[in-house]
Amino acid sequence: MVMLGIERLRKDLREKMASQTAGSGDTAFREIAGDPNGRPFRLTVFLSPSFLRAVRKQRLQGRRELYSALSNLKYGFDPAKGANPGGKDGIFTVSRDHRPGNDMVTKLYDSYLDTDRGPKELRQYLKVPEAAQGVRVVCHGLRLLGFVEVEAEQGVMLERLVLVDVDVRKR
């Protein structure tokens, strides 16, 4: 499994933010392979311009929580687990049908996917953006929001994750 060191993530994010302003935002930020619990996966992570804007706007570039959340990508997405069982870090679903609605649902669906910009942006990264599932990357105090597309190939789950926003938990 690829380890995601905080310093390496910080350097890579800084480079990605600089290259995004230069107009080259469609390359993968990170490719991660793992085999938790006998479920091999290969996760390709993209940082959308919307995500990078949200990171800048919330001034998260220097905050440890951002890099801790990014390091939790190492768990991959398990469609069978779906919702967060509580107290766990990882990648979990965010359903449009969740009631009562919360900030994550609003940010993912109402403010992103249901706009003109969202689907257009997702088409740059995903094969079938309409079939993508809303997810959150969970870390204490911070949620990275995005959409994941999963397909199986020769026993390996191929996952493409596009991060589109952040949800900062107030204390």
Nutshell version of this structure?
This protein has 171 residues and is of the alpha+beta class. Helices cover 30% and strands 28% of the residues.
Describe this structure in words.
This protein has 171 residues and is of the alpha+beta class. It has one domain (6-168). It has five helices and six strands. A six-stranded mixed β-sheet has the order 1-2-6-5-4-3. A hairpin with a 6-residue loop joins β1 (30-34) and β2 (41-47). It is globular. The termini are far apart. The mean pLDDT is 82.
Largest sheet: 6 strands, mixed
- Residues in β-strands, percent: 25-35%
Number of helices: 5
> Unreliable runs, pLDDT <50, ≥5 residues?
none
Give me the Rg, rounded. 15 Å
The helical percent reads 25-40%
Principal-axes geometry comes out as: globular
First and last CA, distance: 33 Å
In N-to-C order, the SSE pattern is HEEHHEHHEEE
Number of domains: 1
What is the typical, i.e. mean, pLDDT? 82
Query: Main sheet: which strands, in order across?
Result: 1-2-6-5-4-3
Would you tell me the structural class of the helices and strands?
Answer: alpha+beta
Could you tell me the number of beta strands?
Answer: 6
